[in-house]
Fold each of these.
Amino acid sequence: MSNTPDNRSSAEASPGDAEEQHDAKELLAEGVDEEVIESNRRLFTGWQWALFGGLAVAYSLFHLITLNVIPMETWSYRVIHIAGALILGYGLYTGGRFATDGQQAAPKWQTVLSALLLLPALYALLQTFLMWRTIQGGAMRIEPHIEAWHYGYPLILATAAAIVMSWCYRQVREKCALPDLVLMVCALASAGYFLVIYNTPLRMSTGTSFAPMGISYAAIAGSLLILEMTRRVTGNALVIISLVFLLYVWGGPYLPGFLGYPGLSVGRFFSQVYTDAGILGPTTAVSSTYIILFIIFAAFLQASKVGDYFVNFAFAAAGRARGGPAKVSIFASGLMGMINGTSAGNVVSTGSLTIPLMKKVGYPARSAGAIEAAASSGGQIMPPIMGAGAFIMAEITGIPYREIAVAALIPAALYFLSVYCMVDFEAARKGMRGMRKDEIPQFRRLIKHVYLFAPIIILIAALFMGYSVIRAGTLATASAAMVSWLSPHKMGIRSILKALQLAGTMSIQIIVVCACAGLIVGVISLTGVGARFSSLLLGLAGVSQLLALFFAMCISILLGMGMPTTAAYAVAASVVAPGLIGIGIQPLVAHFFVFYFAVMSAITPPVALAAYAASGISGANAMETSTTSFKIGLAAFIVPFMFFYSPAILMEGSGMQILRVAVTATIGVIMLAAAVQAWYFGAVKAWQRLLLLAGAICMIYGGIYTDVAGLLVGGGLLLMQRSLKRGGDSPQTAN
């Protein structure tokens, strides 16, 4: 984004002004951390732009005020949280394709039919108001025929028909489509009923035969709205998985073996799925508190240009090293991914700058995309924020947040060290250079603005001083605006409103994904399928614990494919983690094991969202990029097994145990990178790579004897490389 021009000519500008303008330019990393505009995203103009911009600002402010000043009843707050995201989402994202230049917009019959669908939607919304009046008048419950014929049937009809209509309805990109207006009204009607009923004693009847059928009608409509919105913002993968789980609710009783269960009626299931047993449960609890707060924090970093400073600081620090842009990608993407919460989104925001630069210094297109994907995914395991994963884990397990953040330190350091070594060894093997001095920002100028790291420092300090996550996040958000006043990019009222609008827009994807994940969690908890998976793991553990862990890894990756990190972990934690705990693994170890593989599903073929996003920027084949990113992030697929065999890596043990495991695992991941990249203080042959791989696994495993074996392998190959160099017989650098 360009800076505001000075009214004076450059000839009249003072030396101090020129210096400040140069500093302002140095702070910006062009093309980084800008809002991503998806292909199905509307670009409003005029009053519609003002309307939806105002709604996004109001949505962000609602969360800030409710979390910090005026608390609400929990279920009501979560219902509004989801409904607001749905209303914004249906306004901003189309369900089909836009009418482009030269194409006719929707035919008249579609417009008429969509307008007619507004009638049952508005009628259902009117009924929620009338039911509220009835309850306020002292009635204990609503008449069943009113809930069915005057509310439920019109609402479900309007919702289902408008969803189907939105798939084929064409409208120009600057205007909202009529079917989406119908869906926004349906979201209001569904949420309105929940707000009426959940604030009466009838709330206690959910899941029983006494529950009003209106809850089921509202839940069916709400579930359809969540599934369709999830399809629009993340694609079909999560929707298909959700539908499979929903089909299991009614098909499960007919399945053989451990998959079978007694069965649930439609009314009983849907009367409970839109409660804290499902959609309003742990995933929405986290998205409505920690995640939305850190999305607002990230938006303030973006609007204040602090995010740009992070990237440029990484360029100044590592840009001149061999393969410099790749190392910059590791630092910048790791830092931004920690806050971002979605691997693919982080790839797009930082990769637009780092991937072309990596290609420029000699990395193949597939390697450039893979490095960015691996680094961006790694941000999700980097404390203190871990892409909100730490907060979800704390919510599910009841383990204090600080313990989780501390436990994540060594594994995250090992992962990024491994990726760094992969990058460095490839650069050495191919004889790559770093960036020239004139291609990177001047460190002496950037160091003057090191105070821009203050929001991150304040966040970490507040968390470890015992402040609540919400209070710490709010302080960090306020500090992002305040430190901008000391920089050349000061945040005024307009910038603050822009940040709030950006936060409201950015939050849509993660909120609906968490709600959709809550739907899956509801199926798991209400049908008991999670307990049956636990018994399966217990049976496998009787044969081999390693086999049980391998099976748990495969299920975690499979469940996470095509899903954002937050949803992937939430689902895997419900299905897999209880089974691991059941075979005797500590809850912290079990959840970290599941969390790592859920995160790394973003770079695991065949469905690797982060790698696919990177291939779109690099121009490489998507499958080749995902395979290469899997290779670069290989350490993350080995280290979780160490959680079980050496819990000291999660700070579980004495100081000497933790130190020994950290040191040996560090050597192990370096040897692992050397085996993958065929470079260990010089080029290595195939048999030497196999030895390095075996030695790396021994070191990572963590036992005394395996550590000694790994050290002997690493030391022996190091001496061999040294002797070859002294003898002048070093292998030629590979191309």
Amino acid sequence: MDNTQTHGKYISWPILTLMAFVTVIGFDDIMYNFKNQGMTVITSWILMLFLYVIPYSLMVGQLGSVFNKEGGGLSSWIRGTNGEFLGYFTAWTYWAASVPYVVDSANSVVVGFGWAFTGSGKFQDTMSNAEFTLWTFIIFIIFIIIQRRLANSMEFLSVIGGGMMFVMTILFVVLAFVGLAKNGGHMATQPMNVHTIIPNFDLKYWTTVGMLIYAVNGSELIAPYVTQMRKPQREFPKAMIALAVMTAFLTIFGSFALGIYFNAYHLPNDLKMNGSYYAFRALGEQFGLGDIFMYVYAWTSVVYMCALLAVLLDAMTRMLISDTGDKYMPEFLRKTTKDGLPINGYILTCTLCAFIMFLGVFLPEMNDVFNWLLNLNGIISPGVTCWIFYAFMRIRKNSSKYPSKYVFIKNDKLAYLAGLLLLLVTALATLLGVAPQDVEQFSHTWWYELVINIVSIVVLIGLGALLPSIRRRELKYGTAFDRSQWYLMIALVVFSVVFDIWLGGTKIALRLVYIIIEVVIALTLLVVIAHKKPSQS
């Protein structure tokens, strides 16, 4: 960074705007939230932009400026304000939030290939949940194997795919309005008036806010570049305002454009999985081009998602292993090959991804699996975002200790209050997001998804709390557990998970109570087994 500034090469605010934009919003984000809220999502986007996106981005700017020498990463912000352990745990939760995202990306690759090769979603009717999971896992394994040789190529393809995706999104919005004028203003959504876009702020609405937050977060990735601007105090707000304008255009007009082709009052059940392909097919048909747009979008999605998957698999594992050091991370997870690859870290990533995929196998349809994984992101990702607001509150509570070139709201008390409000909203959205989406409320599937949501969160986050204890045992005994302990604990965990999933899929009236009792018993047995001194033989 210093060398960059010495040679006078500053990042301009328009460039920073574009860098932030690609991390914040995409066409699928618009589609997912349109399915959740229909045309009322237009009002939600407006509220989110002004009450959430802008202050969130500006807080990120100050955090990046304060911790510029540490690269501006989220875990370094927490480490700098709350010490090593919370820094480690933040790194773990950030990594854990990536696990459902990686699995969801692999699912999207399968769906994208299906549309790219067949030109329709009919292949989904002939594919069971087990087959869908198997293909997802095969793609997942393939990219773990080839990422070493193709990592640089995949990063390049990510840029190409991301650029194409941005162009396709803008193209859809523009041509949709041209088509609207062409057919005399007729829309699939009828009636279309001011009441159509006003949300009903009930419990169902608030359970979908987490997906909105999931769609617009990510601007923390551009935080390290704040101090590379010539005048960050003046230019960074410009970049964030420009970001808000671009995001507003894409989300508001994009959602309206979807209402041109889809009746918001009667949306297809598989809109989250196949809606993007339906939309581009409808666009092509309106302009007499058949399925051209659909095929271009399908291959664009495949290229982008494949590249993203390969890069994520390597980057997320390396970030976790390298960022936490040897104080909290067990030695066996830090083991690397002669080429520097964290092989056991890959195995952990692969195992947890397989675990997440296994949880969804027993859902009724392939579409349910896709929707559940997507909604799981809408729970875990906003939860991790809470760390950002917490770190911001910490630096504003003692601003003299954390000087910054860029300051969001000069008054510390007002700034602290702003951070607290966003923290509370995000935390509430995270908690309410645990309630299943896209299924009939309190139905058999609803209860099953509620159980696997809780199981997923407990396993992904809880494992991060256990690893430091395992590391302490390594330091004390030379090894964390002996072979018999590992076998017993693995068997107990597998049995507990399978039993809870089976029980959650039954129609027993008090199944949730029984699951809680079983989990308490299983955890107690785990503690007893793990507490025993390992055999040194």
